[in-house]
Amino acid sequence: MTEAEQATTLKTEAVSTKRGKKEKEPLTSRQQLASTIKSVRDLLRKDAGLSGDTDRLPQLAWLLFLKSFDDFEMAREDEYGNAYDPVIQSPYRWRNWAASEDKTKRLSGEELLSFVNNDLISYLSRLSGPAEDDIRSITGKIFQGTYNRIRSGYLLREVVDKLSLINFNSSDDVHAVSLFYETMLREMRDAAGDAGEFYTPRLVVRFIIDRLNPKLGETILDPACGTGGFLVETHERLRDEARNPAQRKQLQRSIWGIEKKAMPYLLGVMNLLLHSLEYPSIIEDNALHINIKNIKEDERVEVVATNPPFGGEEEHGILNNFPEGMRTAETALLFFQYVMGMLKRPGGRCGIVLPNGFLFGNGIAAEIKRKLLTEFNLHTIVRLPNGVFAPYTGIPTNLLFFEACAYSPEDVLPCTRKIWYYELSLPEGRNSYSKTKPLQYEEFEACRQWWDNRTENGQAWRVPVEQILANDCNLDLKNPTTKQDLEHLPPAQLVESIVRKEQRILEIMAEIKQALSEPITNDL
User: For the sheet containing 349-355, what is the strand order?
Assistant: First the structure.
């Protein structure tokens, strides 16, 4: 280095030191993407037509869907050339209306809104293919229930310009967007109130799929799939085992879900696409529309993993799809019957999230449980601590695991012989989980270690099925090593316990009153 160059360097360093600043390092592609997504969210917050995350995420989802699908089609065109027939034709492709190379042809303001609202969405909603799981049919179904709620065509132009910077053919970009998307789903769940049922905590999903241990070649169903968490987790678990194109296609075709509501259906399809499922097999329908007596053997599946809606009621016409004596408006009870009907015999297995009400329910609930214990092997109930589903619900929840047996009506003994209970404890010093302090996956580890080597301990106990059947199929049994928690008792037992305590209080008060009325004697 010459003396002049040294002097220049020293001068530069002196100026930098004097100002107390250093040159910023260039952002990585992931940081740039995170910045892009943040700016898109900030833009959507400015629009008068969107009042919260429950409004903003669906709008962002259909825009991301079109951008990712255009990148997908570009990759196919590069691979197959003129032999590839695009699903979305010009001028409705993202590259035509959102990211035209000729910037003078890019619509904005009222012109852009008019095109999107009157032409684009109408065209997309009419797409259809030869089968329900054909991507044309899926795209058409999505946009039959999609409406643009962004009111400002200028803000929409800014949003699509920023989204055009994302490259869905880059694994780094896809990974970053998928992580962002899951964060948005959680935020949406927290803001959704009664609409929060379509998001199940990912750690609960992971544990259920881990214990069900689905295999490549098996069919996995979630009949109330919401945003597709169980489907995504299954694909993530098995994707490395699918080592060639045929196996990858088989895997994706074997993972499917059903979702009743249009918004979670859109979010679920987008979630699967972001996690590299090119064939997102989600059907927009109510699974309970199927008459369970008409389910054919080839329609049954090896694995069901689900968190069905509970607390709701179904329309009266749905009840005709269930046997007499087993009809109820309670959605969770109908879903449970559907799940039992969909499992292959023998060996079909299920992991399902259910509230305490199912465990101690009587009447039709008791008859459903009697069928469960008789024709299936209910081998494990994992009792979750308070607050796992906070803030959506504080209702205590359980994970039930069972398998279909080779049952016939002539069988004398029920398929279930004993039920193992495992009580997941709260961390020391905690009385509940919360949004800011949620359940951690490591807290399932002790249960995972116990699973294949079962012994009774402070958290695990077993109950013979005869005891359950003799007690009107009440499954709400408490850990015998801990004090009973009145909050979780069945209503009849809760009332009885309160009456006993009130009687004891009256007895104590009478004793005190009598003691006060007796004369005080001096024995000294």
Answer: 281-284, 255-259, 220-222, 303-306, 349-355, 397-404, 376-383, 418-423, 460-464
